[in-house]
Design goal:
alpha+beta, 9% strand, Membrane-bound Lytic Murein Transglycosylase D, Chain A, two-stranded antiparallel ribbon, 6 helices, 4 strands, elongated, single chain
């Protein structure tokens, strides 16, 4: 909880984050299950670092971005460039109005690639080289 609270600059730290998510987490703040979706108190800017295999549509869906990949692209056009089909690993995106913040993986980096069973629902594929 403390690393998630720090990552999203939650005022009041992990206790505030835990209190807000008590129903999703249960009585033990140290037992966060993978896939648990946490609500972050308002105002915390959310940033996402693009990883290999990510797509704008996958990131937007995973973070619950209102307006989907077009809103994510619009908020990050300067960082992405003219082509929303080309996002590069390491690019840091500002996430506009996420519905919730995901619990982070062991690497401290939330991962939300598009489902592998279906092609991406919009721009953002990383070109092969």
């Amino acid at each position: 909880m403390s690393s998630i609270a720090a990552r999203f600059a939650v005022r009041g730290g992990w206790p505030a984050l835990y209190t807000l998510n008590l129903q999703a987490l249960g009585r033990n703040p140290n037992a966060i299950r993978p896939g648990t979706v946490l609500t972050v108190p308002g105002g915390a800017p959310v940033r996402y670092t693009v990883a290999t295999g990510d797509t704008l549509s996958g990131i937007a869906a995973g973070l619950g971005v209102h307006g989907g990949w077009p809103a994510l692209y619009a908020a990050n056009r300067r960082a992405i460039g003219r082509d929303p089909n080309t996002i590069r690993p390491g690019t840091v995106l500002t996430v506009p109005h996420p519905a919730a913040a995901p619990a982070t993986s062991g690497r401290g980096h939330p991962r939300h690639p598009a489902p592998s069973s279906a092609p991406p629902a919009g721009p953002g594929t990383i070109p092969s080289r």
